[in-house]
Amino acid sequence: DAKTTQPPSMDCAEGRAANLPCNHSTISGNEYVYWYRQIHSQGPQYIIHGLKNNETNEMASLIITEDRKSSTLILPHATLRDTAVYYCIVRVAILGNEKLTFGTGTRLTIIP
Amino acid sequence: EAQVTQNPRYLITVTGKKLTVTCSQNMNHEYMSWYRQDPGLGLRQIYYSMNVEVTDKGDVPEGYKVSRKEKRNFPLILESPSPNQTSLYFCASSPHSTGGNQPQHFGDGTRLSIL
What we know:
The complex is a heterodimer of chains A (112) and B (115). Chain A has 112 residues and is an all-beta fold.
């Protein structure tokens, strides 16, 4: 799986949009971009994923650049409950193993 | 509610005493996996299963066993636990895919302490 680079930490004011960047310059054409988050020591929570097009769901939006070398996760109206470590992962299933390779992620702190 | 359920959530035990951490999912997923999370090392895959009776080693399988006799259950077995297996464990499941287009859903974790 391609390597990702994320800032180690970010702050965002409550109620504002949180924009979390991720670089994945070595991504292959068949690799998806996934975002997960982990609150304290809870299980990683799936947020969103995409291949080429921008995606939106009830939790967030994912913006992928045209060359696919970077992406941004957008939490439109951050709340205190969004404080977590956010992981950007690029992956393709190899021989049926859906293994996720988590990096160090971005620790997002929402400021009241 | 769709979920992955792990039990127990917390366990303190002693070296050499066999233990099993259960994992059950109610989403009819083919794929299940176990990870361990340690400070500074991130999540590492222990074992995975692509379907009933099909299991394979992940990155750190030593000291662990698994079984997949039913689709919904994927227990993690520590035959002779040692202190270096003290960790936070997560079970995950997803529908089978051939291109990585299916998100995995994780359980709430099991914090294991081996004394």
